[in-house]
Amino acid sequence: MLVELCHGGILANVVSFDRGLPVVVYEPYCVSPDEVFNMVRKGYIEYYGEKPDWDLLFSWKTTIPTILRAADNYPVIIEYPILGGLERVDYIIVGKKKALIIEAKSWIGEYRRVGRYFICSDPLGLTRLDPCYQLENYVAKFKYLHSAGSKLDFQGLVFTYGFKYVNGCYIVKDQDRLTRIINSLGNPGGYIEVDYIVNGRFQISKTLVEYIRDNKEKLLENAIKALVGGGYGLTEKQLLIVEKVLESLENGEDKAYIIRGVSGSGKTLVALTLFFEALSKGYRVLLTYKNNRLLNTLRRALGKISGFILFYSTGPQGRYRGVAERNFPVDKYGKLDLVIYDEAQRMTRENIELSMIRSRVKIYLYDDEQVLIGYEEGICENFTKAAGEQGIKYSLYELPKPVRIPESYLETIRNLLTRGVFEPGFKGIDFRIYDDIVEMINDLRKKYREGYRIALVASFTETPGNKENRRAPDNLRIGYPLCMKYRGGRCIKYSDLDIYRDTGLEIYWLMDEKEEYPRYWMGLLDPLKYCASVYGAQGFEAEYVGVIWGRDLVWRNSRWEVNPDVITDYVGGKDSLKQIARRDKNRAYKLLVNRYIILLTRGTKGTYVFFEDNETREYIKSFIW
Questions:
Q1: What is the pLDDT of residues 343-367, one digit of tens each?
Q2: How many CA atoms within 13 Å lie on the side-chain side of 48?
Q3: Is the dihedral of CA 38, 41, 46, 50 positive or negative?
């Protein structure tokens, strides 16, 4: 949308981008603040589908005129969405070589600190995120993660209007001083510099695991500060959870925190932040998993403190010695202050009950959309019931929106898997469907050569994998022929899938949890010579991910159908997907929906999909072409 708001014949353009936000004012000196206010309000409604609350409207009404007057002839970007719109940068003033991020606050009254990262007003008692933390978070994200960071030098300040507050960041309280700071940016920017920002992208240069590996000493000193300084700042909801847990530790409480988070909502970031914060304060803390691939990857990254990362469930092969199992050596670890159960949806009821007595404070981070096996029972009802039966206080929190991927993309994938409807109107993810597996692999290879992090994931079908012999026929996942059963040194049952016959491809399952998986997700193995199953994809991410959609979930007769004949997942014995698919297809369908949500949301920038079933591929392609 383009609106001419110029005075005296001077052309001034006010433009809204990407479903209404951000709004850009190219020549502030000749626009009406009221018209800009109306455009921002309309842009917000268009972007979020809801009206802004009075607090936000008041902020715009009071700060837009001041910011525009101070900016004069510098372009101003207003309400720039980041993290899929979970957070927004209030204002960005654009110069030729520099840009100034302004976190503007028009709160009324006097504020005092509550904890380390929140402030509270008197006498209203409103608790808000510290604006200095917000500013540091946004500046670091643009400096280190945004594509414009290589073009412009990003600086920042907090502009306050109507309230008293002093902290360590740069705080400005009057328009004249703000004008002088803006003028110090040098020559005003133009369309090119604005384009760097509004059409640029956040590009995570390191995975969270890599960042932790390279900064563990800083994280042990002050995890929150180290993370925000590297561009991994927490959202307000994430930070609130961290603050509350730390308060419970300081107050000696016996309490459970039950935190549901959708795919990509940053649960592992919260878990790791709490882990480092508690360690740095001298608490006895454990970070626990069932996923041995993720556990071993974190152990490798963390080095000398890896001993504080344990399994919460080992099962019979580990003699039930996990933290949440009956044979856990309690005497060895003593009374623990904090145990963090990440991916807690994989817990059984017995795990949940035993976990309640292992530590004073316990945290359960779970996603009921990521239940993979029939016996997994980590849902809200079971956590609250166990806490109630043992007289333990608990708090419920939810991280309802993803931060790693656009929310619109996640909703599109859910709709596809539950309703059979694909709506390709989402933005922010490069989604492609391939007729030719070789073409997909070649495109992923190009991205890999360009320096992007790549991964390949596949449905657990056609071949079961082979831990003992990595080059055995039943460990080949993409190639020809595919062996479904291997015994006595030979294949006794071949898959009838022949689409890889003339491709020349030989891509094997990742099977070694201790060595191969950590090296794969830390970028130390060729990502296109191996592929991960859903168990090796849960909890991990890459920028571009190739997904092999198997013949286990196919579109037939205007609905999704489960095909148990090609499923090779025996994990869980009688409760495995293979066994459930033979006796209860409805239950198997729900598990497959969860699995494909995981596989299709691993890519932060792009998801490339190859369907092994032609009819399913053509059906989904019909929504695009």
A1: 999 999 999 999 999 999 999 999 9
A2: 19
A3: negative
Residues 346, 328: Cα–Cα separation, whole Å: 18
Here the tokens at position 179 are 């004008």
Nearest alpha-carbon partner for 432 in 593, 625, 615: 625
Question: What is the distance between the alpha carbons of residues 457 and 527, in angstroms, rounded to a whole number?
Answer: 10
**Euclidean distance between CA atoms 474 and 567, whole angstroms:** 13
Beta partners for 434?
A: 610
Q: Is residue 210 classed as helix, strand or coil in its secondary structure?
A: helix
Q: Which contacts of 296-301 are long-range, i.e. CB under 8 A and separated by 24 or more positions?
A: 296/513, 296/514, 296/517, 296/518, 297/209, 297/517, 297/518, 297/521, 297/522, 297/540, 298/209, 298/212, 299/518, 300/213, 300/518, 300/522, 301/209, 301/210, 301/212, 301/213, 301/216, 301/518, 301/522
Sheet of 171-172, strand order: 2-4, 13-16, 23-25, 76-82, 87-94, 98-105, 153-160, 171-172
DSSP string across 69-86: HHHTTS-EEEEEEEGGGT
Tens of pLDDT, residues 296-329 = 888 888 888 889 999 999 988 889 999 999 999 9
The one-letter amino acid code at 206 reads: K
The whole model's pTM is what?
Answer: 0.86
- CA distances from residue 206 to 145, 211, 377, 541, 543 in whole angstroms, order as listed: 9, 6, 33, 11, 10
